[in-house]
Amino acid sequence: MKTNKELAADILEKLGGADNVTHATHCITRLRVNLADDSKGDLEALKQMEGAMGAQIKDGQWQVIIGPKVGDVFLEFEPLLGAKSAGDMDLDAGGKAKVLDILTGIFSPIIPALVAGGIVKGVLAVIAGFGIDTGSGDWAIFNMMSDIPFYFLPFLLSVSAAKKFKVNPFLALCVAGSLMYPTLVSAVGTGESPFTLFGIALPVFSYASSVFPVIFGVAGLSVVYRVIDKFIPDLFKLVVVPALSLMIVIPLNLAVLAPIGAWCGIGLANGIVWLFDTFGPLAGFLLGFFMPLIVLFGMHQSTSPIQISNIATLGYDYLLPVSFCHNLAESGAALGASLKMKDPAMRSAGLTCSFSAFMGISEPALFTVQVPNKTPLFGAMLCCGIGGMLTVILGAKCYGFVMPGITSLPVYMDPSGAMGNLLSIAACLVASFCIAAVTSYILTKPIEA
């Protein structure tokens, strides 16, 4: 078994070396790299590499599927790039920032904090199910613990956005602080604005748990800082550039960028609500049906802002249940296919992938079982669609941001302690897993060694 350092070195070698890398980042399971010269990379060698679960090129970006330990591998990978660390490179090889890459780069680092808060919230809901008041006494500190990552989300996002936009993280925290300033927070809901700019009252929104306002603000800070930095002599840079940047960006953000971001978040959440209210089970089926392809192409992280926005505005999310059913369907499809495999090594790999998807990581099942054998992929897509449709019919909800694996089940417990929602998602999961396993077993031809 290779160490993380050895795996990182092997990946870099097959990508053409440090000089060939123009940008590197990672999401939850994938190392994402842009190359100066794609011809120097060896995709087939990456696919067959020990320690990697697959590889692909999507929109010019090389993606190496590693699994949950991708963050540890990236920590070994980044120093190998030499003086040009990943955080100092261009956003991509062609200099065109992709929206998906930006969202992935911003959200991936903060997911552990969000998942931690979601799990604590789920455990509290389970405890409340036994008739215990979790809103007071010793439980109050755990309630606070579950709310911190979501309420102070602008601060978490400002740090990761600063790295993505290559600007000082402490200045970015100041931008987030302006959105969470007590005077502004206390004005929410009063109908009055505590701040004016050129005699015009600034709009007031609740920026706690918001996503886009701080991202827009840090992006604006990055642009303004670079423009000012070009014109200020080196002798005065340390004093003048940060001060001028904040003096320009914070009023601009409060007046224009943050309100636009708030409206985007509200509009996005309302649009999804309208879609599901209008098309109901059909919307759930289509989202579930295409979920394997969305994950296959590495686009699944783009839904994180929507999920977080739903939880912040509605108190729950209905997209995460579809993702949960997708992972269980992937697990069932991998299990069904592996039972048709006569080669012990292939069967073992299929069972391992099934367990991985059951725990919340579906890429191994997709790249190792579904895609190479095709029929399990169709079975998984069909059953993901059925699972997604069932989540809408049964009204399954997720009350915290979590990874869609079996360990996240407590987060589906209604905070009131009622069991109805937990039973609904359990029915969806069992149906997705069992139907996918049977369908995949029937459709898959016996696979020889």
UniProtKB/TrEMBL annotation:
One of its GO terms (molecular function) is protein-phosphocysteine-trehalose phosphotransferase system transporter activity. GO terms for biological process: phosphoenolpyruvate-dependent sugar phosphotransferase system; trehalose transport. This is PTS EIIC type-1 domain-containing protein. It holds the Pfam family PTS_EIIC. InterPro entries: Glu_permease_IIB, PTrfase_EIIB_Cys, PTS_EIIC, PTS_EIIC_1, PTS_IIB_1, PTS_Sugar-Specific_Components. Residues 101-449 form the PTS EIIC type-1 domain. It is a multi-pass membrane protein. Signal peptide: none annotated. GO terms for cellular component: plasma membrane. Gene3D superfamilies: Glucose permease domain IIB (3.30.1360.60). Residues 5-87 form the PTS EIIB type-1 domain. The keyword Kinase applies. The active site is at 27 (phosphocysteine intermediate). PANTHER family: PHOSPHOTRANSFERASE SYSTEM TRANSPORT PROTEIN, PTS SYSTEM ARBUTIN-, CELLOBIOSE-, AND SALICIN-SPECIFIC EIIBC COMPONENT-RELATED. Keywords: Cell membrane, Kinase, Membrane, Phosphotransferase system, Sugar transport, Transferase, Transmembrane, Transmembrane helix, Transport. The chain crosses the membrane at residues 106-127, 139-158, 170-189, 195-228, 235-260, 272-297, 377-402, 422-443. The keyword Transmembrane applies. It comes from the Bacteria. It is found in: Cell membrane.
